[in-house]
Design goal:
471 residues, 7-stranded mixed beta sheet, Four Helix Bundle (Hemerythrin (Met), subunit A), single chain, 4 domains, alpha+beta, Rossmann fold
């Protein structure tokens, strides 16, 4: 592939480098953009799609649920492009591949799409709910394909009551990093935390179906989004120093996903994080390093770590970004958070408030639920998170004088929507664009590595560039 046909990759790093002597962590926000991913659309990578449809007995009442599921499957199947590998799985107390009749997965084409739609139309509700078996079958089916992009949509209407204790967690560990999964709950009698856990481990989204008629459009959108991801292997490589180590890393935009367990140790002080498949999109990550401030000299930049973006077979796309620490006694410098870091930590606090309100509501403490949800509403307002405001607005009424009350006639699905929506974050472009870097790259006199014209530190060895030194 020629350079002009390659996707573009951008990695930006935001932090406040100043540390007080009592500080023990450094928070960083990484903004990653991939553009022109459609350049590979002429020969997209092999893609596999599975529809995991809850067919437990509860899906039969009201009958609109199972019919909505059938219609959503047909809509998703109809949107598959030719050549995509796909299957439909009936999910109850066990999982059964209903189309094709047996592995391997079918290849999308006019005939197979029509056959699959007919099979989906025949889905019948009856049985229990054991989600671990659904995921294990998906893992087995994906393992039999050559697909680089592997994606599933999971729909349920019930609690995971037919599974053995711990079975879902064990299945998720087996599936971690093997495929992506978006999860949806329909009706009013399912457990949002199960879907949240599935989506977090399998790098997907979780949400509530507010109206059954909306499910088909949602299925179609999720499948089309998965097929639009044509860059299969993007990774963040993170290095740490003897006085720093990884505390956690999570995706924070467009949704929050815990990623620390997916980091792979390459060698001492080097970790690599697979981020999954990409289309034309932007994602943000919150990286937190534990720092031994006592090991840093005061009043000078010290390298705490580096982050490099990789794609394909060990191909770095762009220069390493340095995470810098500067130990100072000046609280005016160390106490002011970076704007991007403050935004993502505020979003995390918002999510905790929504969940605390849900837990209070579950145990019947409406006063405590109102307190937490009111606090979440105020935080969402400050963050400009209109999606969270909309979802909380279905749960609570906020009067002009600030009094908060739980809405009358509240449906469980409205509460579930607010809980799952709390992981949906916002992104705002920086108020002032950073001027483009110009001039020749700076070359480190210690190791010969080249860096950007405005770099203060060598991203390879961590040595500072001397002021006024030639490039």
């Amino acid at each position: 592939m020629s350079d002009r046909d390659r996707p573009s990759f951008t990695l930006q790093l935001s932090q406040n480098k100043y540390l007080a002597p009592a500080d023990d962590r450094m928070d960083v926000v990484l903004t990653v953009r991939v553009g022109d991913a459609g350049a590979t659309a002429a020969a997209p990578p092999p893609t596999a799609e599975l529809l995991l449809v809850d067919c437990s007995s509860s899906m039969d009442w009201p009958p609109t649920k199972i019919e909505a599921a059938r219609h959503a499957c047909r809509a998703a199947i109809g949107s598959l492009r030719d050549g995509v590998l796909f299957g439909v799985v009936e999910c109850t107390g066990h999982a059964r591949l209903v189309y094709p009749a047996a592995p391997p997965l079918a290849v999308a084409g006019e005939r197979t799409r029509q056959e699959a739609k007919a099979a989906a139309a025949g889905l019948i509700a009856g049985g229990g709910t054991a989600m671990s078996t659904w995921l294990d079958l998906a893992l087995d089916l994906f393992a039999q394909t050559p697909a680089a992009i592997r994606h599933a949509v999971l729909l349920t209407d019930g609690k995971n009551e037919s599974d053995r204790t711990g079975a879902l967690e064990a299945a998720l560990e087996r599936c971690r990093g093997r495929f992506a999964c978006d999860a949806r709950g329909i009706g009013d009698d399912w457990e949002p935390r199960d879907l949240q856990r599935i989506a977090s481990v399998l790098r997907g989204s979780a949400d509530a179906v507010l109206e059954d008629a909306e499910l088909a459009g949602d299925f179609r959108r999720l499948v089309e989004q998965a097929m639009g991801r044509t860059v299969p292997d993007v990774r963040l490589r993170m290095t740490t120093m003897p006085y720093s180590r990884l505390r956690f890393v999570k995706q924070v935009f467009p949704t929050e996903v815990e990623l620390t367990p997916q980091c792979r140790t390459q060698e001492r002080g080097v970790l690599e994080l697979p981020t999954g498949a990409w289309g034309d999109e932007l994602r943000e990550y919150h990286l937190c390093l534990d720092v031994e401030a006592g090991a840093l000299a005061r009043y000078e930049d010290r390298l705490l770590g580096t982050v490099t973006l990789f794609a394909g077979a060990d191909e770095a796309v762009g220069e390493p970004r340095a995470v810098v620490g500067y130990l100072t006694d000046d609280l005016a410098l160390s106490s002011v958070p970076d704007e991007r870091v403050a935004h993502v930590t505020g979003q995390a606090e918002l999510g905790r408030a929504v969940l605390a309100g849900f837990e209070a509501f579950e145990r019947g403490d409406r006063t405590e639920a109102v307190r937490h949800w009111g606090s979440a509403f105020r935080m969402a307002t400050e963050l400009g998170n209109t999606e969270n405001l909309k979802r909380l607005g279905r749960v609570i009424d906020v009067r002009d004088d600030g009094v908060v009350a739980i809405r009358e006639g509240l449906r469980p699905r409205d509460v579930f929507s607010a809980v799952l929506g709390s992981s949906i974050s916002t992104y705002a472009e920086p108020a002032a664009a950073v001027p483009p870097e110009s001039g020749a790259p700076r070359k480190c006199v210690h190791c010969g590595h080249k860096a950007s014209p405005t770099a203060n530190l060598c991203g390879h060895c961590g040595e500072p560039f001397e002021a006024g030194a030639p490039s």
